[in-house]
Amino acid sequence: MAIPLELLAPAGNAEIGMAAIDHGADAVYIGAPRFSARAAAGNEPAEIERLIRHARPFYAKVYVALNTILTDAEIPEAIAIIKQVYEMGADALIIQDVGLLELDLPPIPLIASTQMHNATPEKVKFLEAVGFKRIILARELSLTEIAAIRKQTRVELEAFVHGALCVSYSGQCYMSQAVAQRSGNRGVCAQPCRSRFDLLDRDGALVLKDKYPLCLKDLNLLWDLPALVAAGVTSFKIEGRYKDSGYVKNVTASYRQALDRLMAEQPVYGKSSSGKVFFSFTPDLERTFNRGYTRYFIHGTEEKAGSMDTPKALGKLLGIITAVGKDYFIARDVKLHNGDGLCFFTANQVLDGFRVNRVDRGRVYPNSMKGLTVGAILYRNHDQAFEHVLKKQKTVRQVGVEMDFFQEVDGIRLEVKDEDGHIVSHFLAILMEPAKDPEQARRRIHAQLAGTGNTPYHATRITLHPENPGFTAVRFLNQLRREALAALTVIRLSQYPREVIPFMPNAAPYPETQLDFRANVLNRMARRFYERHGAAVNEPAFETLAHPAGKTVMTTRYCIRHQLDACLRKPKAYALKEPLTLKDAHHRYRLEFDCENCRMRVIIV
C-alpha cells in the first residue's frame, strides 16, 4: 500500500475551503468559532459543517483549529466547541493549550499546533507519547533536523511549505502583547514585526533608518517537496487563512501538480484523498501575493530571508522602464493589461506603486507618474488578467469510476466501481428494442453514461455488454446513470474512513523540569498538565505579566547580523558595535546574539 501524502490548504471560510478542495487539497484547516490563532478567521458551526459536507465525497479531511491559549473562564466554552465540531464530523483538532488535555475530550484525533514550539526531537517525542496523532513542525527546521526528528519518532509530521513567515519561533513571540496588548498566542497579533525600525549600534549611531529588519519574505518550498518527503514529512501545509480565494486556488493548484509529479515518479507514495483535478488554468506562484520568496532554513542558515525594504507584496519582477513621456512610460518586453497594479522602489528605496489605466501601442499610461524614471525596476503585485482567470476558471475535481453496462433479459443494469474500490449495481426494468443502427446506438449509450455532469464523478472506462446492445430512450439511460451514481455516493459517504482516537492521559516525562512564561500557561489545567508530567511552572503566561520590560519578546533563528553581512562566524564580517538596539516610534529593543546556536533574542527595554 502506498504511503499517503497530504496537501493541506487554508480555509478562511467555507467558500475558500471548498475552492481549495476543488483545486486539489487533500485536507483543509479552518478556524473554530472561537479560540483560533487567527481570531478574525473564526467560523460559525454551520459553515464548518458545510465545508465538511463538500469534502466528504472526495475523502478530503477537515481539521478545525482551536489553537490559542485559554483562560480558566474560557475552558468550558472551548470544550463545548470541541464536542460540537466532533459531532459534526471534523477529522482532527489543532490545539496549543495543553490544559485541554486534562479534560474529558471526545475521541477526535489531536494535532499539535506549531504554536507549541515543536523544534526538537525531545519535544516531538513527548507530544507523541502524550497522544498527539500529528505534530506541526516549527518553520525554522532544516531537512537534517526534520530527519533527526523522524528517526526518533513515528508520529505524523506536518511542515509549512508556503506562505507568510513569522520571524519569531511560533508560540514564542510576545512583542504584540508587550506593545499593543494583542497576544499572538490569543489569536490577535498586531504584527509589529512588520513595522519600521531604526537599528542603532552601541554608540547610538544609525546602522539602519526607517527599514523593516524583522520583516521576512514569504516561504516557497515548491521544489523541495521530494527532499521533505525523504526527510519524513507527509503533510504539506500552505499558510493563509487570511488569504482570498484566488490566492488559495493558485497556490493549492501549484502544489497539487508538484505532488502529483512526485507520486508519479515515486509510486511508493500516493494521495490521501480521492479524485482528479481538471485544471482550466496554469498556476503560477509568481503571479499571486508574495513579498519575494525564500526557502528559509530548509537547507541551513546561509540564505538571507529578510525583506528589509518593505513588508508589502512585490509580486512578479517584470522589467525596467526604458523611456518616460509626459503621461506615459515604456518598458520593453513587458506585457501589461488595463487595471494591473505595479510597484517600484524610488531613488530613496521607498516602495511606491500605481495602477495601469491604459496600454496603447507599447506605451503604458498609469494613474500617476510620480517617481517613475528611466531605469526603475517594475514589479506587478496585482495581475488583472490572472485574477480574471482565477475568478472565471472552471476547474473541477471528480472521482474516477469504471462503468459496466449490461443489457439483460428483463431490463438494463449499470455496475459502477470507484477508484477506492466501492461497487454499486443499479437495475432498471426497461426493455431495449433492436437497434436500427447498432454503431450509433452504442455511441449514444456511451455518451449518455459518460455525461456525469455536476456529479463528483468522471468515467475512466465504459464497457457495454454486449458490445452492441439495443436501443432505448435517452431519458432511461440518464436515469440509470443518475441513480447508480447517487447510490454510489451513499455508499462512499457511509464508508468514509473517519479516524477515532480516544485520548488517554499518562505521565510521560516532559523534557524540561523548570518552566517560565514561555510555556504559555494561562489556566489551572495547563499548570496541572505540566505538573503531572514532572515539570514545575515557575512563571505564568506572558499575557499575565504587569511589567514586560527586560523580557525576551522574540526568539528567532533569523539573524539581523547575518542579513547585514555582519555574522561573527564569517571571516570578513562587517563590524558592528554591540549591543545593537531596535527602535520604533514608541519602544526600544535590545538584541542579543547566541552565535553558537544561531539564535537572536529581541528584548524589550
Features:
605 residues, alpha/beta, TIM Barrel, Thrombin, subunit H, eight-stranded parallel beta barrel, six-stranded antiparallel β-sheet, 13 helices, 31 strands, globular
Please provide a written account of the structure:
The chain has 605 residues and is of the alpha/beta class. Among the domains are: 3-165 and 219-285, Alpha-Beta Barrel (TIM Barrel); 293-382, Thrombin, subunit H, CATH 2.40.10; 399-494, no CATH class. Helix content is 24%, strand content 26%. The protein contains 13 helices and 31 strands. The chain has an 8-stranded parallel barrel with strand order 1-2-3-4-5-6-7-11, surrounded by 6 helices. Strands 9-8-29-30-31-28 form a 6-stranded antiparallel beta sheet, with no helix packed on it. Strand 26 (514-515), helix 12 (524-532) and strand 27 (536-537) form a beta-alpha-beta unit. Helix 4 (121-130) packs parallel to helix 5. The longest helix is centred in the middle third of the chain and has 21 residues, at 245-265. It is globular, with a radius of gyration of 28 Å.
